[in-house]
Model the fold of this input.
Amino acid sequence: MMKKTIICLLLLSFSIGMEAQNLHFKDGKFKIVQFTDLHYKLGNPASRQATDCLYEIVKAEQPDLVVLTGDVIYSKPGDMCLQQVLNVLSDVKVPFCYLLGNHDPEQGISVNQLYDQAQQNSYCVQPKRNGNTLDYALPIKSGDGTKTAAVLYCMDTHDYCKMAGVGGYQWLTSKQIGLYRNWSAAFKRQNGGKPVPALMFMHYPLPEYNDAVANTQVVLYGTRMEKAYAPNLNSGMFTAVKECGDVMGVFCGHDHDNDYSLMYYRVLLAHGRFSGGNTEYNHLRNGARIIVLHEGQRNFDTYIRERGGQILYQTTYPDSYTKDNWKKRDGTR
Done:
């Protein structure tokens, strides 16, 4: 048991950089802006729509953290393309972290190089890369800095499935699921045996997004104009999340015409809002998803902010997604 505990703590220390220790609650809140699918192209005027989106929404929301959930770059050479986006993030002076999508690795630069390039930015809070592992956990400290009050699990969804006869997108591997379980267990031990409230970010949606949509009893907010393009095989991350009991919500990108959120078995499954310009398909005004955590509570607020200032789909997890007991009402609404 002692050996197992030491191994878990070593995994925790390898995957959490010292930079992340600066993330903490302020006045009981921690605000995240999720930008996704910028599809930034060098020299393409349409990419100005993506950078304008970044500037405008960060200025309006004043977040504690920006999370980029993949498909950030869309032209070669990838390092020059990524640097253009990193320059914007340096300019807005807000901590950020970067997850790769399926298109980021297609721009002639390896995923390790892209990760390292982002990590070396002075405002980046993701840890230094441990070998070829691109998954990481970011602890958010309590307001007084004495403990970890929340955790963000950032999972790399790779690119395409190479298994013959399956195709589609790559699923999260058993190794990644084991890594998440070890992180979760270590944070739980540090918290006196109680799961630490957590969120999970990734590029692809989990297969359960489509299962949830198919359940007509599930409360859904937002726009759904395409199916969730999840991996064809289900490797079990959602089951791990339920068994560990810490993750309140999973947030993805990838599907440009979806920005909905819904609760499935008490876990919120949500899409970000497409944040790019007209360099790829889109039928929603570009914007971002906002998430506000509350210190010491297993709830959070979330909504979409469009470029131009409109706020859409303001909800609170879990209350907005839970049907009331109609039998206890005095009358109809």
User: Anything to note?
Assistant: The first strand starts at residue 29 and ends at 35.
